[in-house]
Amino acid sequence: MTKSNPGNLTTKPAAVLVTAIGLTAALLQFADTNRSDRIAHGGASVISASGPLLPSGSIRFMAIDRLGTVWFRVVDRVGGRDRVISLDSGGRRRTFGGLRAVVETSRALVTTIGTLPDFWAVDARGNVWVGPAYHDGGEWITVAEDHAYPGGAMNYEERVVVDDSGNAWVPYHALGDCSLGGACDDSGFAGFSVDGDLIREVSVDVPAELNGINAPAVRFEAFGDGTFAAVGTKSVFLLPATASRVLPGLGVDPETGERNAGFVSASAVRPDGDVAMFTWIEPLATDPRPVVAEVAGSRSTWQSNDLGASPLFRDDARGRFLAAAAYAPDGTLWAASTAGELAARSAGRWTQHFTQANSPMGDQVTDLAVDAGGAVWVATVRGVRVFKDGVWRTSMTLHLPRLDKACGWLHPCLPGGSP
Question: Nearest 5°: CA angle at 289, between 283 and 295?
Fold first, then answer.
């Protein structure tokens, strides 16, 4: 194990860059938009210049804590650690240099919130984990480090959950030489004790489709009783046990030894405390027709619900699967496809469908969340959108309808004609 002193947080004021042409258009529009905070556009509405400034940039993960604060991990453009932005229920925004900076400057808040999957974990001793390192109140203690070795490297993510036994589970990516030549990738998750002992490494398959949208191969979800599941691409692991529970349609046929093509593309916690996985399966057939399904249930029983009636997949699920999903407190399922569309299912009926034509959707979705008030938070590779009560709000503070035709709803024109 290695120890390090806490680093200093660097917080920079939010800077808004407005080009000359965008500023001119905004000023021309402000006289109209200031009269009302709603503007009709293609059957949808947007808020003009009100509410907190939503994060822009590429959002890797998003979560809402039990206090109602929304947290965002924003990808660093040059490959550094993710920045972290929070918006509390009062609309106050804070920016942190990274996850460790959140812990170092707001430890009391973090321990009050408790474990927030994809951000940090708090164990029974009060240690706060960020990836394979924990803060004990005075310093960081690292139980596993990234390292390179002849022919390869091992890297750990800044994601972690801690099971009831106090073991920390962290996703990893490894690159090494293949036995037949060339380079081989390996992804999975590893468990460590607080003393730094390796408990076990579990490898998972990584389909090319997930790599194509930079989606995680391992997802952590918390059951209602506080226990955790590691969701792989074909099965679920109920921690601390690492026995694989293969999901319907993704196992090997015992008679033929063959297996359907397919994978888990998203997961979410249901209002009843169970975890749902969303699968894409291409059956073994002469003319296979892919099936997108919601696999819900408890630790021992799975029920698979075909989502083919969803407007996201009504035409065809070839080359299209769920990118993210979230349940509202009332049980409504919100689901986003890899085509950048969003749909809602309530009481067994699909009641909403948003595309680039009638909303600010269209960009690749990376995460979804629904807050206690029913607002749907959509994280994308180009910022955040929020939908509530028929109104869309985006990371833009002003809607520029006069430029829509030339440059698109969310992307105002820049000098030189580039969106």
Answer: 65
DSSP, collapsed to helix, strand or coil, labels residue 404 as helix
CA distance 344 to 353: 7
Task: Give CA 401 to chain center in angstroms.
Answer: 30
Q: DSSP secondary structure string, 174-218?
A: EEEE-TTSSEEEEEEEEEE-TTS-EEEEEEE---HHHHHTT--S-
The helix (H) or strand (E) run that includes residue 31 is helix 20-33
Count Cβ atoms below 10 Å from residue 399 Cβ, excluding itself.
Answer: 26
Distant-in-sequence, close-in-space partners of 158: CB < 8 Å, separation ≥ 6: 81, 82, 99, 130, 131
Q: What local confidence, expressed as pLDDT, does residue 52 receive? A: 67
Strand ranges, E, within 23-156: 39-41, 44-46, 59-64, 70-74, 83-87, 93-96, 121-122, 128-130, 133-135, 140-142, 147-149, 152-156
3-state secondary structure of 282: strand
Q: Which residues are 104's β-sheet partners?
A: none
State percent of the chain over pLDDT 70: 79
Order of strands across the sheet that contains 59-64: 59-64, 70-74, 83-87, 93-96
The better pLDDT of the pair 49, 92 is held by 92
Residues 6+ apart with CB under 8 A from 182: none
- pLDDT tens digits for range 74-90: 999 998 999 999 999 98
pLDDT of 149: 83
> Using 50, 70 and 90 to split pLDDT, how confident is the model at 182?
low
For residue 73, which of 89, 42, 97, 90 has the smallest C-alpha distance?
Answer: 97
Mean pLDDT of 137-153: 91
Q: Is the pLDDT of residue 17 over 80?
A: no
